[in-house]
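User: Small ask, check this?
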Amino acid sequence: MLAYPALKLVAPTNKKRTVNPKRRRNGELRTREYLTEREVERLIDAAKENRWGHRDSTMVLIAFRHGLRGSELIDLRWEQIDLKGGLLHVRRVKQGTPATHPLTGRELRALRRLEREAGGSPFVFVSERGAPFAVRGFQAMVERAGKAAGFDMKIHPHMLRHACGYKLANDGVDTRTIQGYLGHKSIQHTVRYTELAPTRFKGLWRD
């Protein structure tokens, strides 16, 4: 009769692994996702103090005034800008609707100076080496300007697009016009601006 060795209990070799928690949504990390017009001006003033202050402050101004995403801003080319006619031909990403926006005197002066200082690149905003500006570079610049301006919250480029929408809504611009200006395919993306506009409830109470 064969003798079998005694069976031994073997401890499991698998180690307990902790599952990383899911990243919290931006709305949970920040109390709001937009800036007021006055706060945008603070950001512009802070960006002016950078080494390439005129370029950086113009980037913030144009992104805000025209509700541009970071990728739309850094891809902006001189062929889209009519300095004589005062027009900006906006190309949207994410299947957004293109549009033609008027340029104000302040924007035209900033862009004309930028054109004079440009090194012949087809892109409006370029790095110090003359290469097209990168989205990450724009993000980093806006974040630094936000810290320099003394903001308690982290500032990111998309807050400028939201700032544009809320500014127009606060001024009483109708939802359809805001939709066309920002290039939203669906008006459902636009109504959030009018829903939070304080002017929506203006006049409900009178003393």
